[in-house]
Amino acid sequence: MYKIVLVPELKVLLSRDQIAQRVAEMGQEISRDFAGQTIIFVGVLKGAAIFLSDLARHVPLDATFDFIGVSSYGNRPTPAEDPAGHAAWDSSGEVKLTKDVDQSMTARNVILVEDILDTGLTLNFIKKLLLAHQPKSLRIAALLDKPSRRKQPIQAHYIGFQIPDAYVVGYGLDYAERYRNLPDVCVIDNP
Ligand code: IMP
Ligand code: MG
To answer: Which of 45, 173, 184, 187 is the pocket-test mutation for ligand 1 (most atoms within 8 Å of CB)?
Structure first.
């Protein structure tokens, strides 16, 4: 029997310089919108960690951090079963909370920070959960948006880049937990 091992191919879609420039602009926009106010950044673990840390450093306001963790119900397929990396998010419409925020969001200006907006299921779930706290305001900042994949309507106030329907890794985004540490956002083939 032959065992064929494919070498993953990573093509840069967004370079570290493009990302840095856009993240700085997003930070400036948030700073203008919330001038003189206090905000709380709520990052969605783990993918948004790198984006949040860069974004927050472009927002010179009185700010704090919190983090929320979610995962998709159902069996996430192995890379071999799902080379495109989409099945887990297509097959299961349900999201479960794995880590709640540590503090109340009541009467706070909340910026929910997410790596990528895909079907919209994850952010709709989190949005509902945070709105139950009755925040003063709730806005979404997403580095990437794949509008063609949307299953549930949702809009982010701050979007870094709209991208086509390709599976991307790097700058926090993973494939089976790997590649988060790549400085560029890359399209992955043969993961
Ligand atoms: P949604 O619930 O379909 O909007 O999924 C959002 C989540 O799916 C993100 O937080 C990512 O964890 C994951 N995801 C969706 N597309 C990609 C991708 O291209 N690369 C890496 N993760 C992705
Ligand atoms: Mg994620």
So the answer is: 173
Give residues with Cβ within 8 angstroms of 152, minimum separation 6.
119, 120, 121, 124
Cα 135 to middle of ligand 1, angstroms: 25
Give the containing element (helix H, strand E) for 188.
strand 185-189
Confidence (pLDDT) at 91: 42
Gap between the Cα atoms of 68 and 7, Å rounded:
34
DSSP one-letter string for 132-170: TT--SEEEEEEEEE-GGG-SS----SEEEEE--S--EEB
- 3-class secondary structure, 183: coil
Among the bound ligands, name the one nearest to the CA of residue 126.
1
Least confident span in 1-5, 82-86, 111-115, 140-144 = 82-86
Q: Which residues are catalytic?
A: 118
Query: Does residue 43 have its Cβ closer than 6 Å to ligand 1?
Result: no
* Nearest ligand (C-alpha, residue 175): 1
Q: Ligand 2 mean position to 4 CA, how many Å?
A: 30
Position 79 scores a pLDDT of 53
**Taking all residues of the chain, what is their mean pLDDT, rounded to a whole number?**
91
Distance separating alpha carbons of residues 85 and 29, to the nearest angstrom? 33
